[in-house]
Design brief:
The protein is of the alpha+beta class. It is built from 5 helices and 14 strands.
Amino acid sequence: MGVKNPSRQAGKNTYRNSYAPPVNKTGKKASRGNRKIPAASVPAKRKRTITLPHPSFSTVAKWLGALLRLLLLLCLIGVLLSGIAWGVFKAYTFCTTNSYFNITSINVTGNDRITSREILDKCGLETGMNSLSVNLHDMEKLLLKNPWIESVSIKRNLPDSIDIAIKERTPAFVAKKKDTLYYINPAGKIIAPVESSNFLSLPILEIGPGGEESLPLVSDFMEQFRKAGFPFQLSQISWFRISAGSGFELYWESRQLRLSIGLENWKDNIKRLSSVIADIEQRKETGKVTGIRSADGQVWMTKEDE
């Protein structure tokens, strides 16, 4: 059904179907809506490729030149290091063979129970040896194998002397273990067997029942005993005994005096014992007393007639 167009073109009345698609200038009907485009008319996507630049002859020449310069530098460094090493070796050889550094004196200090000859034989040191050719660290390790040596220090004094400083272990007692007598330090540790060549007159240490637990207190006990101001010394005692029941017991054979100190609050017990002995000494009655015990805050004495 046609609809009359109210507009006039070139003085003529025109009719147009309202449902007909518009006509373009080429005379073809324009398409309404989406048009399906043939696949052949869509250009295909190009794949991306990475193209590496080809090194030119000048670039390769630069790389080779840099490599040659690096190799030359490394060769020069190697020659320089070889020269330094050779120079150090020649200097070391000269110093260790020159008589200017020969040892003429060896000073040994701190040794009391070990002779200087034993020390030198142990570490293999002699006069006439080159001071720079000896290994001081190895000598110290050899000397520390001796049970009497607690610490050692060896110092080289150029050009021709050596100093050896020894610190020996100090024995405080003699103890019997498996039918062998040993020297014992104040901490209760074994030092070395008792021999005729190193015999020392020391008190005998005895460990009674339960005394092993109190053995670490021996060193501190001896120090406190020395500071207490007793009229006699620990070196004069005949034997020293430790047990859980009696505590610390000491016996002076020359005075026939036996002292007993309880383990509980033993430092206070030492002070009380020292005060009582000082009072007895002042009254000159020490010879009449055969035993004194300090424990539990009290002091008991046993006289000769008892």
